[in-house]
Amino acid sequence: MQTALRTSLPETERTSRANFAPTARVVREERPAQTSGLPLSIRALRKSYGDNEVLRGIDLHIPAGQFVAIVGKSGCGKSTLLRLIAGLEEIDAGGVSFGDAVKPEDIRVMFQEPRLLPWARVLSNVEVGLGRDRVSSDAHSRAEKALTEVGLADKREQWPSLLSGGQKQRVALARALVSRPRVLAFDEPLGALDALTRISMQRLLERVWRDQGFTAILVTHDVSEAVALADRVLVIEDGRIAHDVAVNAARPRKRGSAELASLEGSILSHLLSADDRT
Amino acid sequence: MSLIDSVSLPRSFRLPHVDGLVQWIVPLAIIAIWQVASITGLVPTRVLPAPSDVGLAGWKLLLSGELVRNIWVSFWRASTGFLIGGSIGFAFGLANGLSQLSARLTDTTLQMVRNVPHLALIPLVILWFGIDESAKLFLVALGVFFPIYLNTLHGIRTVDPQLIEMGRIYGMSDGELFRRVIFPGALPSIFVGIRFALGIMWLTLIVAETIAASSGLGYMAMQAREFMLIDVVVLSILIYALLGKLADSASRVLERLTLSWHPAFQKR
């Protein structure tokens, strides 16, 4: 019902539509200006651990503001690619460049585990995300704004151990968003959540991405999640990009629509046929 | 009990009140049984004087000022030795937990020293310091050093590496990383060390005061033994028990104040 309501509204009513999101409420007058996403170019990127060559030459261009999903079997190198983009690992050969000079605050990563500091209250955990701006005078209000965006403003003084798995992940999302990043990399952020929480988190991710306009890179096991969220799905096999599939379905997308299902089917059959060959 | 449970008072209001009484039921019952046994002659007063006699002896010593002076001397020795040994242990724990070089340089040596029972050093310590204050402080400091060193080191080494990676990604400087991630992460383990050390602190002090001292609770007990004042001996032992309990409670209060984020401290 929710989805039906949302699809019937015109594109321009984005902010008011956000108010229908089940778990999050957005205060409209606090809406910041759109942050501009960064384009991303990857040339002949290679990475190996010892004798194991994980990435064997990745060439990729991601336009600013695009939502890209990376899928593949475990161990195919998709998480490594993400960690290289985010600067968490040393690059062996090739390069990753962003169209602009980047500050550390411009690129943020969200992991499968929330990685919240258990000894800091929710609000201070979000403030961690401000990077060098943590000490600035508006740190508090910025963190509160980010918490409001993920719908957890009322939990600001809570200890993380008292939150549910989905709430912890939303705090982690607020922490990643608070510095207004221009590239946001997700390493299976929803992998540990139950099915219903996953769906509401997917909606939340899609909404903040549309509101803020960052470039999103999502690594996931779940092909249906990839086609539901992304503009483009990359299939990685043996350290190379095996398929590059555009997802042109209109947003907001209706879960379980025939269009997405057939796309999901064809990507899955790619992944599984690779399995049969070996 | 079920009646108390059914009363819908907030937990935070009800529990400390009841808890505070419950823990004293057993000690008080033991004292009551002991008193009855003494009065009926079941336990001869030559073996164990009645609690009332012990209380009376305590009252006399209190009036003469001897008791307060001896408790104060022992308390001063215990806390000073604890502070000296504890801070050195904490400093080594930090250094060896944070720096590989420091750990390689000193850890092996410290582990070797650790395996020498520190009370075995008493003869040597008496030769070095006589029965001076420094002898007692040295022994207490040495005794509390190791539990605090080992637990600080362990705490720092077992801080979740994912949190440290997170801190680095979010641009924390080394100092900030220590303050916001490593130290709070190591704190539960440091408290375990402190509570172990408090036990060792009393043990060491009592032994040292019994063997080589001219004041303090241990000395008071030994003097009383010479004059067959068994009530004073028992009194000293009871005071040790109370002081030990006091030190433990103090560390619990500190724990509760600093670890309120910890799930183990939230539901009480």
TrEMBL record, chain A:
Listed PROSITE patterns: ABC_TRANSPORTER_1, ABC_TRANSPORTER_2
GO molecular function, one term: ATP binding
Biased composition range(s): Polar residues: 1-10
Keywords: ATP-binding, Cell inner membrane, Cell membrane, Membrane, Nucleotide-binding, Translocase, Transport
Region ranges (Disordered): 1-20
InterPro entries xref list: AAA+_ATPase (IPR003593), ABC_transporter-like_ATP-bd (IPR003439), ABC_transporter-like_CS (IPR017871), ABC_transporter_ATP-bind (IPR050166), P-loop_NTPase (IPR027417)
One Gene Ontology biological process: alkanesulfonate transmembrane transport
Family: Belongs to the ABC transporter superfamily.
Purpose: Involved in beta-(1-->2)glucan export. Transmembrane domains (TMD) form a pore in the inner membrane and the ATP-binding domain (NBD) is responsible for energy generation.
Listed name of the protein: ATP-binding cassette domain-containing protein
UniProt source species: Bradyrhizobium hipponense
Automatic annotation (TrEMBL), chain B:
Membrane topology: Multi-pass membrane protein
Key words of the record: Cell membrane, Membrane, Transmembrane, Transmembrane helix, Transport
Subcellular location: Cell membrane
PROSITE patterns: ABC_TM1
GO CC annotation terms, alphabetical: plasma membrane
Range of residues in the leader sequence: none
Segments forming domain ABC transmembrane type-1: 71-248
An annotated GO BP: alkanesulfonate transmembrane transport
SUPFAM superfamilies on file: MetI-like (SSF161098)
Transmembrane segments: 21-43, 71-94, 115-131, 137-156, 177-194, 200-220, 227-247
Function: Probably part of an ABC transporter complex. Probably responsible for the translocation of the substrate across the membrane.
UniProt family annotation: Belongs to the binding-protein-dependent transport system permease family.
Record PANTHER family: ALIPHATIC SULFONATES TRANSPORT PERMEASE PROTEIN SSUC-RELATED, ALKANE SULFONATE ABC TRANSPORTER-RELATED, MEMBRANE SUBUNIT
Name used for this protein in its record: ABC transporter permease subunit
Lineage of origin: Bacteria, Pseudomonadati, Pseudomonadota, Alphaproteobacteria, Hyphomicrobiales
